[in-house]
């Protein structure tokens, strides 16, 4: 793996190759990661894995055609061939007037913001095993836990660099640390499983191994002897670990590429109030140590805090350069980058906390359900129709009244957003952070 400076140089050198091969413009991405993980089960080592990868991706423009091509061979001969092939492909590609680099006047300039995304602590495999064993042991110590699916710990480093032919060169290093435990409670046909998992840029930001294990065990035990729900409309309350998926559906529909294709349930709602006035949703790419923090986007534009929903109103679409050209706007710094052309996405996103505690949020619910797990992908991004399998806890007369399972929750996202209420228990350790959320009037299909 190259360091950040060398990675930037490698990406810039690939741009030079593309220009010499005849490209009118180009950008190049270098991406490398190295990770180690250890998994144990019932105190015994089950898996020890180390992986390393290094990859470059080149996008070139020739006339109105463009092409993207990548390689894991970083030798000089391979990169010369990569550049020549990319230019040949671009010349043969169909015309696309929207394909071009981001506007030069919008590129990030000057020193990049320091986001503290890398931890110097590099744990050894022995330490990873020790943490995995301790997390599993803490989970097995919870009364009612009868078996284990394992404990695991991991650590990794990633280097990303981007260079463009019109003047941008940048890169950054990130690290990751993960810890998890998954256990089974009960016996025979009544067994239930659950887990706890956390990830952080810095090891010091993870909870203790005992906390992870205990939480996994308590969650599994809480699912024992689930009942069934009657079908009908009722309030649905989303636990923070699943409520973030609602933000994911919103963001996908706000992507300019979906709007340009007319394939979004938000198509006619730009600037409209689709949430209650007290709902605010914010994207924070410059959050120190954030899981999705980044000093620039996938096209070299600066990133900045963006309010996606303000006082219940959408504030506009999320656009990379191609979507901005299609919609007649300007890029918003939300380009993402994998191995090909830029996509669109957000970074660290959250729903602002409300005024009520979770207990106050459910206090007036006579009959409802608190969802702790959603299953399947039954969401239509064009119509907003929503239907997912779920399990969780029943709410009776404002109190949690035991586990329930094998039911479906359904509605339409526009209507769901319009009835969304947020509690005050917002925590900051996920990429998408939300407090406990309540949506009234959803359809529950149970017995």
TrEMBL record:
<feature type="domain" description="Metalloprotease TldD/E central">
    <location>
        <begin position="121"/>
        <end position="224"/>
    </location>
</feature>
<protein>
    <submittedName>
        <fullName>TldD/PmbA family protein</fullName>
    </submittedName>
</protein>
<dbReference type="InterPro" id="IPR035068">
    <property type="entry name" value="TldD/PmbA_N"/>
</dbReference>
<dbReference type="Pfam" id="PF01523">
    <property type="entry name" value="PmbA_TldD_1st"/>
</dbReference>
<dbReference type="InterPro" id="IPR002510">
    <property type="entry name" value="Metalloprtase-TldD/E_N"/>
</dbReference>
<dbReference type="InterPro" id="IPR047657">
    <property type="entry name" value="PmbA"/>
</dbReference>
<dbReference type="Pfam" id="PF19289">
    <property type="entry name" value="PmbA_TldD_3rd"/>
</dbReference>
<comment type="similarity">
    <text>Belongs to the peptidase U62 family.</text>
</comment>
<feature type="domain" description="Metalloprotease TldD/E N-terminal">
    <location>
        <begin position="26"/>
        <end position="90"/>
    </location>
</feature>
<dbReference type="Pfam" id="PF19290">
    <property type="entry name" value="PmbA_TldD_2nd"/>
</dbReference>
<dbReference type="InterPro" id="IPR045570">
    <property type="entry name" value="Metalloprtase-TldD/E_cen_dom"/>
</dbReference>
<dbReference type="InterPro" id="IPR045569">
    <property type="entry name" value="Metalloprtase-TldD/E_C"/>
</dbReference>
<dbReference type="InterPro" id="IPR036059">
    <property type="entry name" value="TldD/PmbA_sf"/>
</dbReference>
<feature type="domain" description="Metalloprotease TldD/E C-terminal">
    <location>
        <begin position="231"/>
        <end position="446"/>
    </location>
</feature>
């Amino acid at each position: 793996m190259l360091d950040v400076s060398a990675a930037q140089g490698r990406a810039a050198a690939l741009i030079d190759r593309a220009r010499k091969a005849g490209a009118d413009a180009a950008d190049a991405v270098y991406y490398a990661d190295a990770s180690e993980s250890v998994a144990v089960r019932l105190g015994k080592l089950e898996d020890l894995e180390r992986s390393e990868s290094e990859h470059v991706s080149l996008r070139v423009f020739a006339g109105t055609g463009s092409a993207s091509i990548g390689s894991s061979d970083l030798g000089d001969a391979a990169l010369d061939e990569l550049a020549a092939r990319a230019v040949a492909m671009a010349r043969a590609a169909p015309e696309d007037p929207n394909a071009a680099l981001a506007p030069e006047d919008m590129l990030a300039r000057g020193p990049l913001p320091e986001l503290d995304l890398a931890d110097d602590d590099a744990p050894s495999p022995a330490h990873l095993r020790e943490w995995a064993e301790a997390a599993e042991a803490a989970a097995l110590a919870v009364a009612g836990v009868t078996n284990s699916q394992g404990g695991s710990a991991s650590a990794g480093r990633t280097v990303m660099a981007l260079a463009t032919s019109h003047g941008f060169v940048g890169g950054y290093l990130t690290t990751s640390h993960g810890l998890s435990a998954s256990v089974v409670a009960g016996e025979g046909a009544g067994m239930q499983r659950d887990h706890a998992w956390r990830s952080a840029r810095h090891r010091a930001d993870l909870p203790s191994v005992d906390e992870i294990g205990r939480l996994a065990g308590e969650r599994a035990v809480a699912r024992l002897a689930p009942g069934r729900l009657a079908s009908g409309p009722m309030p649905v309350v989303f636990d923070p670990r699943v409520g973030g998926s609602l933000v994911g559906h919103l963001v996908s529909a706000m992507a300019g590429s979906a709007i340009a294709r007319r394939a979004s349930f938000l198509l006619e709602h730009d600037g409209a109030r689709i949430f209650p006035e007290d709902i605010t949703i914010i994207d924070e790419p410059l959050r120190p140590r954030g899981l999705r923090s980044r000093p620039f986007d996938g096209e070299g534009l600066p990133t900045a805090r963006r309010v996606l929903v303000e006082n219940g109103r959408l504030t506009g679409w999320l656009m990379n350069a191609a979507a901005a050209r299609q919609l007649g706007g300007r890029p918003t710094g939300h380009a993402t980058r994998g191995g090909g052309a830029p996509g669109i996405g957000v970074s660290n996103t959250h729903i602002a906390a409300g005024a009520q505690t979770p207990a106050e949020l459910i206090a007036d619910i006579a009959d409802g359900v608190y969802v702790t797990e959603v299953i399947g992908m039954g969401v239509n991004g064009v119509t907003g129709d929503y239907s997912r399998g779920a399990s969780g806890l029943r709410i009776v007369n404002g109190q949690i009244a035991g586990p329930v399972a094998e039911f479906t929750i359904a509605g339409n996202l526009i209507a769901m957003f319009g009835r969304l209420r947020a509690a005050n228990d917002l925590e900051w350790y996920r990429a998408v952070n939300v407090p406990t959320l309540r949506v009234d009037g959803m359809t529950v299909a149970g017995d």
